[in-house]
Amino acid sequence: xxxxxxxxxxxxxxxxxxxxxxxxxxxxxxxxxxxxxxxxxxxxxxxxxxxxxxxxxxxxxxxxxxxxxxxxxxxxxxxxxxxxxxxxxxxxxxxxxxxxxxxxxxxxxxxxxxxxxxxxxxxxxxxxxxxxxxxxxxxxxxxxxxxxxxxxxxxxxxxxxxxxxxxxxxxxxxxxxxxxxxxxxxxxxxxxxxxxxxxxxxxxxxxxxxxxxxxxxxxxxxxxxxxxxxxxxxxxxxxxxxxxxxxxxxxxxxxxxxxxxxxxxxxxxxxxxxxxx
Length: 277
Known about the structure:
Blueprint: H1 3-18, H2 23-34, H3 40-61, H4 63-75, H5 78-108, H6 112-131, H7 134-144, H8 156-168, H9 176-186, H10 191-218, H11 227-254, H12 261-276
Helix pairs in contact: 1-2, 1-3, 1-11, 2-6, 3-10, 3-11, 4-5, 5-8, 5-10, 6-9, 6-12, 8-9, 9-10
């Protein structure tokens, strides 16, 4: 892998992690097109480390929220304590799926055909999440209860559903942000609340995956490019992640994520064509 490829992959990771188009899918697609000769499991480890830049961006942008969440049990802050519990519940499906399915995903779900189908499914889910009738219930609820805090709009059932969507997004081509935001919409959250919860719940799952990748590196189970290559990739991932988070938080206030569906259908068709050519 060259420095230019590392720069490109890091930037691609940061931008596509938060835009609902699947960072893992775009990374695998780029790696296949670049013909980068790294073992599939090692490449998945590299992709996981690229998320370290994404993780740092999330912690910085949502620093105030995470300080409030971490301090909530000591401050007896019921609102943020409730949200902390819900985040733990939402993380469980993804953590279990990542632990038991990592090798299967790395070895069997990174082909062009698999990517193409997953891109198309993500596009359909974005449309489903945006046009589900549950959003009307949410609007009616907010009109009747305008002062109700955000944690009260979330239930154990709804966050587990969003967490299940996050677990499915381990498959390259299925967008984590796209699936979890759409799942939140289906559960009655408005766009901003669904996005913020999606980004908050990304932190523990990305942190856990990064720690496991680092452990595999130290035990010799993963082989990676040079430290210089990794540093460039992670740094560019961080910068582009910050830009993507800020952009999307402003974008969703007045616009639908369904705008990204046509792009996903196009890249799905192109990828499937390349697979069967």
